[in-house]
Structure formats: C-alpha cells, structure tokens
Amino acid sequence: MSASFNPADPLGLDDLLSPEDLAVRDTVRTWAADRVLPHIADWYEQGELPVLRDLARELGAIGALGMSLTGYGCAGASAVQYGLACLELEAADSGIRSLVSVQGSLAMYAIHRFGSEEQKRTWLPRMAAGEVIGCFGLTEPDHGSDPASLRTYAKRDGSDWVLSGRKMWITNGSVAGVAVVWARTDDGIRGFVVPTDAPGFSAPEIKHKWSLRASVTSELVLDDVRLPADAVLPEVTGLRGPLSCLSHARYGIVWGAMGAARSCFEAAVEYARTREQFGRPIGGFQLTQAKLADMAVELHKGILLAHHLGRRMDAGSLRPEQVSFGKLNNVREAIEICRTARTVLGANGISLEYPVMRHATNLESVLTYEGTVEMHQLVLGKALTGLDAFR
Ligand SMILES: Cc1cc2nc3c(=O)[nH]c(=O)nc-3n(C[C@H](O)[C@H](O)[C@H](O)COP(=O)(O)OP(=O)(O)OC[C@H]3O[C@@H](n4cnc5c(N)ncnc54)[C@H](O)[C@@H]3O)c2cc1C
C-alpha cells in the first residue's frame, strides 16, 4: 500500500533522515519555537537582539555552535545535521542563523582548520559554549566581492604584528570577544586571531539596516593593533583560507534559506485556507493554488538539493562549485517564495504580525553576503566553460 501524502513533506524527504538527524532537527526547532518565535517580531522592529548573549549560551548548550567540528567542546555532528539545524534556525529568523553561521562556520572553522593547537585550546571550547562570540572580518568598505584586493595590512615589528585597516558589514562585530581578521602581509593574505580588547581595536555597530534587523552588523576599525607573533593562523596563506571558511558557511545557507522559505510557505497556506474573498477561501481559487503548488515544488526541490550537498560534504566529496550551485539556487528561490507568499497575504503580507515580509527583507542580505548571485553565476560559468569572467 502506498504511503499517505504529507503536505508538510510532499516528497517524503524525511525518509532520508536517520533517528539522530530527526532528533537534532526537533531539538533546534523546539528551541527556536520557544526562545525566538515569541519575540522575533519585536526584536526586528526595534532593530536589536537584546538577549544575544543568552541566546548564544543556549545555542552552545544544544550543541549548535561549531556543530560539525570535532573536539574542543564541539558536537561533531554530520553536515546533514548541521544543515537541518540551519534550516530550523532560519525558519525562525535569518539573523539567528547568521549568528550561528558566523560563529561556527566562519570564526570557529577558521581557528579549527588553520589555527595552532594553542589557538584552538584558547578559543574553541568557550566559543562552542557560547561564552565567547566570534566574528569574521574579510569585507572592507572598498572591497567586497573581490577580497583579493583587500587593503588591511599586517606588518612585522620585531616579532610582533601590527594591523591597520577597516572592515565593513561584519556580523557579530560589536559583540565579539574574538575577531578572525584577514589582512595583507608581505607574504600574502593571512588570518589573524584578534582579541577584541586589544588596544586600537573598535567595532562600531552599523545602524539603519532594513534587513537582518535582529542581527548585529558592525564596522571593524584596526588602528595599529599590536599582536604577538603567534596571533597569525599558521596553517594557511592566501585567499584559500577565507574562501574555504566561506564555502562552509555557504553550505549552511543552502539549507537555511529553505527555512525562511518554509516559514513563508506555511504562512501562505494557512492564510489561503482561512481568508475568504468572493464568498470562499482564497486557497480555493486556481490562481492561488498555482502559487502554492509552485512554491511547494521549489521549496522541496531546494531541500532535496541541500540534502544531496550535505551527503557529499559528509563523504568529503563536496566541491566549492557545487556549494555555489546550491547557494545560487536556494537563496534565489527562497526569495521568490517569500515574495509570492507576500502576495497571497495581501495587505497583511507587509505586516510584522506575519513572518513573510521579515523573511523577505532578511533574504535580501542573504542574497548578497557569502557571495552575491553574480559571483556564484561567475563561479559556475567558469566551471562550465573553463573561461574566467571575473575581471
Ligand atoms: C547583513 C550583512 C552581513 C554581512 N556579514 C559579513 C561578515 O560577517 N563578514 C564579512 O567579511 N562580510 C560580511 N558581509 C559583507 C558581504 O559579504 C558583502 O556585502 C558581499 O561580499 C558583497 O560585497 P559588496 O557589498 O561590497 O558589493 P560589491 O562587491 O561592491 O558588489 C556590488 C554589485 O556588483 C556586482 N559585481 C561585483 N563584481 C562583479 C563582476 N565581476 N561581475 C558582475 N557583477 C559584479 C555584485 O554581484 C553586486 O551585485 C555582510 C553583508 C551584509 C549585508
């Protein structure tokens, strides 16, 4: 006998998940429902995340920080489990997923993969517990999509390093206890582990954002910040360092974007079933059903794609071009799903009483950070043709 059709899982993708995967998903979903969803509209409206440090500790307690890393207090989860967590967090809000992505996939990942044993022991356990928040400084005011041109400079002074420059649009910057900063040196681009109480370091918060309002975004100012010789990440030189961290974080976004899309889709279905016009629920009109059907198709195709990439990551065979494929498709489709959901909700679609507009505006940032649509098109274009069209 064939299984019954489940509207929440029309392709039966849950069959791909193990009991452990489902347990991780349920834990994160329950946490987000309890700790984020009741407050997120207010935080968004106020443009702040007042309990960020509490949330970070709680996320640490459920193993969500540096989740797929091993040792040093990290959970050692699979890539699929990490992806499921990202999806559930972003179904609550992209800002919460960003907090977790930057902590785990950018700051912790950089130290875990490229750091010295002492750097790992000093920072990773406290970061995994959410006691220390990390940020990742690559983007500069004049260098975004082209980080190879970054200007922040680290010069030698005796055995010390002295860092000067500015970083822009840095998630968690003002609340971070440690910043992983990428700077030019005489030997190429290097990563530095910078305690944020170092003299000369400051991180003014960027205000007036109309996207990711429940997320801290900052400038980093490095004004002759003096660091000891062992502040440099010893295991990598060149752009390969930051790019491999970004690839890990982008993988989480492939899943996360589908969380935002799922939240909007569910809001649209619920609204369409109950909102009546012309004497019947708007979900009974063919034009609305076409929207919902198309949204469901893209949503679950996107989740299937994320799952496939997760399995490749777990097998150690995931290519950066495949991550670009996933990020390009899933964020682009997620934003389209949110915009379509907005139309189903009519005027209510623009209200913070519903999650739709919040997710749609959040996804404008997600579309841009970790490589814009155009950058991922260029990555794929180069892979498909062998021709580099970046410059
Ligand atoms: C909320 C938020 C949080 C962020 N958090 C972080 C963080 O934690 N750490 C960090 O380092 N950065 C972070 N960023 C920065 C983000 O990674 C950059 O914004 C992104 O890389 C794009 O850079 P840019 O904004 O300077 O745009 P630009 O690079 O100036 O691009 C502008 C436009 O030109 C297009 N473009 C550029 N070059 C080409 C080309 N060759 N061909 C075709 N089109 C091109 C781009 O695709 C884009 O559409 C964050 C950004 C936001 C919005």
Describe the structure.
- This protein has three domains: 13-128, Butyryl-Coa Dehydrogenase, subunit A, domain 1, CATH 1.10.540; 134-231, Butyryl-CoA Dehydrogenase, subunit A, domain 2 (Beta Barrel), CATH 2.40.110; 240-385, Up-down Bundle (Butyryl-CoA Dehydrogenase, subunit A, domain 3), CATH 1.20.140.10.
- 50% of the residues lie in helices and 14% in strands.
- It has helices at 19-35, 40-46, 52-61, 79-92, 94-114, 117-128, 240-274, 286-315, 320-344, 356-368, 373-385, and strands at residues 134-137, 153-157, 160-171, 178-185, 188-195, 201-202, 217-227, 276-277, 280-281.
- The strands form three sheets. It has a four-stranded antiparallel β-sheet, with helices on one face. The protein has a three-stranded mixed β-sheet with strand order 1-4-5, covered by helices on one side.
- A hairpin with a 2-residue loop joins strand 2 and strand 3 (160-171).
- Helix 4 crosses helix 7, helix 7 (240-274) runs antiparallel to helix 10 (356-368) and helix 9 crosses helix 11 (373-385).
- It starts with 18 loop residues before the first helix and ends in a 6-residue tail after the last helix.
- The mean pLDDT is 97.
